[in-house]
Amino acid sequence: MRYRLVEAERAEHAISWLCKVLGVTRQGFYAWRRRGPSLRQLDDADLARLIVQIYDGSLKTYGAPRIQLDLRDDHDVHVGRKRVARLMRELGIEGVSRRGKKRRTTVPDPKEPPAPDLVKRRFEAVRPNALWLADITYVDRGSDLAFEHPSRCQVVLHSCCTSAARRGQK
Questions:
Q1: Do 107 and 159 have their domain in common?
Q2: Are residues 64 and 110 in the same domain?
Q3: How far is CA 163 from CA 1, 73, 122, 132, in A?
Q4: Are residues 45 and 61 in the same domain?
């Protein structure tokens, strides 16, 4: 890591000064420059090619656990899941998760004060037609949201509108 910093900064500063500041020898830096990639780097490059091949073969759905199993079972390559995950991160690929993100049906405006609690948490009416409550459940259908029971919701909405019209409200 230190040698990479010396390499990156050598256009701006003297190599001997950078090596002295970082606590490495000049000879070590020049030996590092002459050295080729390590065996681990070479193995990672081969493994990355194999990971991309498996990932594309799975229609870009497999994540690190499945790719690791496929490497072990079909290709007889025994590597850790975290190594596969690291290489996938470096390649910028990720598997598809079955767990979807929870969709918010209402996004409140942070500047607006919260709606007043007109019921004051008392959910029992003292007389008929004095308290109206509703609970609408949404179901995520992937691309849009739907009511759990559309016919039931239509009945509730119709009765609310009819009742409000009878009372002279709009």
A1: yes
A2: no
A3: 74, 66, 21, 10
A4: yes
Q: Are residues 168 and 113 in the same domain?
A: yes
Beta pairing, strands 138-140 & 145-147:
antiparallel
Domain limits at 28? Answer: 2-34
Question: 158 and 118, same structural domain?
Answer: yes
pTM higher than 0.90, yes or no? no
For residue 24, what are the CA distances in angstroms to 10, 13, 21, 42, 67?
A: 14, 15, 8, 25, 40
Q: List the chain pLDDT tens, one digit each, 170 residues.
A: 789 899 999 899 999 999 999 999 999 999 999 998 889 999 999 999 999 999 999 999 999 999 999 999 999 999 999 999 999 999 999 998 877 666 666 777 888 888 788 778 777 888 888 777 776 666 555 555 555 554 455 555 555 566 666 666 55
When divided into structural domains, the chain yields a total of 3
